Amino acid sequence: MSWLWGSSDKGEDKGVASPKSGGSNKSGGSTEMRSLTVSETFPKMSPKEAFDIVFGKDLVIAYQESQGNKNVEVSDWKDVSTDEDKAAGTERLERTLKYTVPMNVPLPKMMADSMGMIDTIANSVETVTIKDGVYEVTATCELTGPPMANKVDVKPLFIVKQDPKEATTGLVECNISFSFNVWGLSSMVEATMESGVRKGFEDLLKMAKTWATDGKPTKK
User: Fold this and answer.
1) Cross-referenced PROSITE patterns, in alphabetical order (predicted)?
2) Fewer CB under 10 Å: which end of the chain, C or N?
């Protein structure tokens, strides 16, 4: 199973099913949508410090590589605040995340040569909105390459803020909406997809907490 960091509003143009709950896809199956929430606390850290850990370049690259992706590139944050944002005391930043998702099933060489590639390239745009010490991060992703029939289309919303239970603790919540294609045993597919998406984001937050507690690991 492959899941992408952020969904694309242009999914059908890229050979990917659009996230419509209960709808049908081009292959005769159905497209289902679900949601879940994961969270992690970062003791003795401000929301900014927690944000810098979770969305730091080195951690994002290490995490994507741990998920089997490769050629990971992360740009610097760019200020895209409008005059209206500034008047409202809001800061808006944007960056791009690009990586390659290797195909699980190799194509025959002749077919791969005719397509010009055998992997899927993901281009994700992350946007963070900062207001009153709260960070909200969203992501959209566009794909190029072979269609991924087993792809989970993911829409994450990260909220980084002060833990209401502990003033000296940063809290990272991630609300995730995701859609996936179903052929056949929908209950089995749903359970597999949900556990995979949950584990993916839990692994990200666990990695961030380990780095926050023990420091960034040194490369051997």
Assistant:
1) VAST
2) C
**Domain 2-16+33-214: which topology?**
Alpha-D-Glucose-1,6-Bisphosphate; Chain A, domain 4 (3.30.530)
For residue 57, which amino acid is it? K
* 87 vs 25: CA distance, rounded Å: 44
Of 175, 159, 143, residue with least CA distance to 3: 143
Provide the Cα torsion 156, 105, 70, 93; round to 10°.
-20
Asked whether the beta carbons of 167 and 35 are under 8 A apart, the reply is no
Type of residue numbered 220? K
pTM > 0.85: no
Give the confidence band of 210 by pLDDT, cuts at 50, 70, 90.
very high
Is residue 138 within 8 A of residue 154, CB to CB? The reply is no
Per-residue model confidence as pLDDT tens digits over 126-148? 999 999 999 999 988 877 765 55
Q: What is the pLDDT of residues 52-95, one digit of tens each?
A: 999 999 999 999 999 888 999 999 999 999 999 999 999 999 99
d(CA 22, CA 30): 6
What whole-number distance in Å separates Cα of residue 130 and Cα of residue 127?
Answer: 10
